[in-house]
Specification:
Structural class of chain B: alpha/beta
Radius of gyration of chain B: 24 Å
Mean pLDDT of chain A: 90
Distance between the termini of chain A: 39 Å
Largest sheet of chain A: 5 strands, antiparallel
Largest sheet of chain B: 6 strands, parallel
Order of helices and strands of chain A: HEHEEHEHEHEEHEE
Number of helices of chain A: 6
Helix content of chain A: 25-40%
Structural class of chain A: alpha+beta
Strand content of chain A: 35-45%
Number of domains of chain A: 2
Largest interface: A-B, 27 and 33 residues
Oligomer: heterodimer
CATH architecture of the largest domain in chain A: 2-Layer Sandwich
Strand order of the largest sheet of chain B: 3-2-4-5-7-6
Low-confidence stretches of chain A: 1-16
Low-confidence stretches of chain B: none
Number of helices of chain B: 23
Shape of chain A: elongated
Radius of gyration of chain A: 20 Å
Helix content of chain B: 25-40%
Chain lengths: 182, 590
């Protein structure tokens, strides 16, 4: 028996030891409370949310797409998908990680304060990361960077010693590659 | 058909169109327009309860005993919050309810108005779905959608929160039968290839068992019939959860009794040693499985359930079939017959021999007494004296509930109403009222404890008002018996707050409510007293004074496996120290 099973006699071998990161795409009717239902499910059942984004994607039909990044064992992820499917205004739940080859993108705005060499270094790195300067003063820049979450993490870490002052991130939006639509 | 009418009238019209003839409710400021509309018609009968929790349980009893959707109508604020326990109860036991709550007018929402609460926010977690109706145009659709959602798939409670201005405003009402819901379309038919695989596995099994649950009852009487047919065809043993009792007749030789924490020795050992488990409409609840990592370790598991999230939730299964159990059972029977499948008779014979050995252990045996009524004996006598009548049983929650499940035997579905998942004390009396409303000529008995019954005692007034001859059969041991039992097992017999002190005189209480009170403490007088109860044409409170410190056995102690059950005789002699049965890990569990 594994360590989790030893902790609680009720818990099965569905432990957290083999946790995976999955990105779920959830197509919902954009009606009041639908986001609360989704978030409430995660908090109520003790699931993790690493990132959550939501926006309306079809104005006439009033459909929204929620992209959730979560972690858990494969069994737990399957359970999360099924629990989501039970929510009445949800059209479809797709596990983009199981489908493979999903593209994930996130937008970040990064404010960096500094003078002299630090300022120049920040600008050089921004260029290397293809970040745009969207605001500038004599002692600060705001960079806009789009990319996979890892790339943004990397950039933010580089900016930290150079005068990182403020950070805003959108969370992950994701879509499957190829011709097929969810 | 579309007609112009007010929102309040639409509610009544929708109830009629849904075939709802009885609702349970309590008025208040935010639902007055609906009560006014109720007043001006005769189709929908309204039962005035004395507390909104009672309305919810009564609607549950009504729903569970008829297979229809139960309806309750309550006001905003405290009306809604009082209903929350009943809604949660219905959610955990998959009972279809539609609960209409009044709400303050839309322009006051969010202003902390008088009797305002965020009903959809509060009930989001304890309903299958809920709606806040913001405009009259949405109301007809929402009303009918609510019934569809409540009864379709895995049934559950649905709340419609209806602001007072919407009740007053006027709009066009229309009703369309067989709505096609945009998003919610549960799968009913099991996938053919999986059903085929299941049948193959059954034909190959040497030690099979059916483990069935409330889903069979929810699927409708046809599913119970099909279950009987499949058991007869295969000659497999069958056990059931608390919620599933009655789907399969207790008098059949294939019946092992209930399984789980207070299930029979034979049912639990059969589950533990089986090589094929066929779970039908059951959900591997912790009361059933006991210690998960030692649960049924030698078997392949087939799980048939209408709710995909039930499959692989607590226990990993080898074959999950999503579908309504009635449909899947039907397909299984057809395949079994057409494929001329046969059970492995030799293996099955040996399996039955083994099961008979477990049966011979007589795990429900208890030491009877001439001086004091044993609670088990009381339920046994109640069963013997009522089994040939048109009887429905409800219960409260605790030891009496388990004794009722063990000693009252059911031959048909929809006869047994109990709070399984949530374990709600105070369920039984209002549920009995709901059952009696649906079955006016039946004998409806709430098997109760003296502590539970006091939680919704006020509903005696409802019984009196509507001339409902419900019988409350209290196993009075002056303790919250199950709490006391756990304190004996876990906490050195320190009975902290579990003694029922300052109990009312139940006979006088019955009389005060306008009913009949009967007290019995003598085993010899018990039969006559029960007959007196049955024969009385009004509500009765029967104060059955029973042995005070009787424990409910057999029992799988918390954190133990099915084959580690303790039996009554083991706990009395053999030097078993009762306080040491549950280990430290088990003490953490509930």
């Amino acid at each position: 028996m594994n360590a989790i099973a030893a902790l609680s006699p009720y818990s099965s071998s569905m432990g957290k030891s083999n946790a995976e990161r999955h990105t779920l795409s959830v197509l919902v009717d954009n009606e009041p409370g639908v986001l609360a239902r989704v978030v409430g499910l995660f908090s109520g059942r003790g699931y993790n949310i690493e990132s959550l984004t939501v926006a309306e994607i079809a104005h006439v039909e009033r459909w929204s797409r929620i992209t959730i990044v979560t972690t858990g064992s494969p069994e737990a992820i399957e359970q999360i998908s099924h629990q989501l499917e039970r929510i009445v205004p949800i059209h479809k739940v797709t596990d983009l990680t199981v489908r493979g080859r999903a593209i994930e993108r996130e937008l970040a705005m990064i404010k960096v304060r500094g003078k002299g060499e630090n300022r120049l270094e920040a600008l050089r790195l921004a260029e290397a990361f293809k970040a745009k300067v969207i605001d500038a003063t004599l002692e600060s820049f705001i960079f806009e960077l789009t990319g996979a979450p890892d790339k943004i993490d990397d950039f933010v870490e580089l900016m930290r010693p150079l005068g990182l002052a403020e950070l805003a991130r959108t969370g992950v939006a994701a879509i499957a590659r190829g011709a097929e639509a969810v | 058909m579309s007609k112009q009418m007010t929102g309040a009238e639409m509610v009544i019209e929708a109830l009629k169109d849904q075939g709802v003839d009885t609702i349970f409710g309590y008025p208040g400021g935010a639902v007055l327009p609906i009560y006014d509309a109720l007043f001006q018609q005769n189709f929908v009968k309204h039962v005035l309860v004395r507390h909104e929790q009672g309305a919810a349980h009564a609607a549950e009893g009504y729903a569970r005993s008829t297979g229809k959707v139960g309806v309750l109508l309550v006001t905003s604020g405290p009306g809604a919050t009082n209903a929350v326990t009943g809604l949660t109860d219905a959610l955990l036991d998959s009972i279809p309810l539609v609960c209409i709550t009044g709400q303050v007018p839309t322009h006051l929402i969010g202003s902390d108005a008088f009797q305002e609460c965020d009903t959809v926010g509060i009930t989001r977690h304890c309903t299958k779905h809920n709606y806040l109706v913001r405009s009259i145009e949405d109301l007809p659709r929402i009303l009918h959608e609510a019934f569809y959602v409540a009864r379709s798939g895995r049934p559950g409670p649905v709340v419609i929160d209806l602001p007072k201005d919407v009740q007053f405003s006027s709009g066009v009402y229309s009703f369309q039968e067989n709505i096609q819901h945009r998003t919610y379309q549960p799968r009913l038919k099991g996938e053919a290839s999986l059903v085929r695989q299941a049948v193959e596995m059954m034909a190959a099994a040497k030690k099979p068992v059916f483990y069935t649950g409330g889903g069979v009852i929810n699927s409708g009487p046809a599913a119970s019939e099909l279950l009987r047919e499949l058991v007869a065809l295969t000659n497999f043993p069958i056990t059931s959860t608390l919620m599933g009792l009655g789907a399969y007749p207790a008098s059949s030789p294939n019946w092992l009794g209930m399984l789980g924490m207070h299930g029979t020795f034979e049912a639990n050992h059969t589950m533990h040693d089986c090589d094929l488990m066929i779970a039908v409409g059951s959900r591997f609840d912790d009361r059933i499985t006991g210690r998960l990592d030692a649960f049924a370790p030698y078997c392949k598991k087939i799980h048939i359930d209408i709710d995909p999230s039930s499959i692989n939730k607590n226990v990993k299964v080898d074959l999950g079939i999503v579908g309504d159990c009635g449909h899947v059972l039907e397909d299984m029977i057809a395949l079994w017959r057409s494929g001329e499948k046969k059970s492995d008779e030799i293996a099955l014979g040996e399996w039955w021999d083994q099961i008979d050995e477990w049966r011979a252990r007589k795990s429900l045996a208890y030491q009877n007494s001439k001086d004091v009524i044993k609670p088990q004996y009381a339920v046994q006598r109640l069963y013997e004296l009522t089994k040939d009548r048109n009887t429905y049983i409800t219960t409260e929650v605790g030891q009496h509930q388990m004794w009722a499940a063990q000693f009252y035997h059911f031959e048909e579905p929809n006869r047994w109403m109990t709070s399984g998942g949530l374990g709600t004390m105070g369920y039984g009396l209002p549920a009995a009222i709901g059952v009696q409303m649906a079955h006016p000529d039946a004998l409806v008995i709430d098997i109760a404890g003296e502590a539970s019954i006091l939680m919704n005692m006020q509903e005696m007034t409802t019984a009196k008002q509507y001339r409902l001859p419900v019988k409350i059969f209290i196993l009075n041991n002056e303790y919250m018996g199950m709490v006391r039992q756990w304190q004996e097992l876990l906490h050195g017999a320190r009975y902290s707050s579990s003694y029922s002190e300052a109990l009312p005189d139940f006979v006088k209480l019955a009389e005060a409510y306008g009913g009949k009170g009967i007290r019995c403490s003598d085993p010899e007088m018990l039969d006559a007293a029960i007959m007196e109860m049955i024969d009385y044409p009004g509500p009765v409170i029967f104060d059955c004074v029973v042995a005070k410190e009787e424990n409910c056995f057999p029992m799988i102690p918390s954190g133990k496996a099915h084959n580690e059950m303790i039996l009554l005789d083991l706990s009395d002699d053999a030097g078993l120290e009762i306080g040491s049965i549950i280990d430290e890990k088990g003490k953490m569990l509930v």
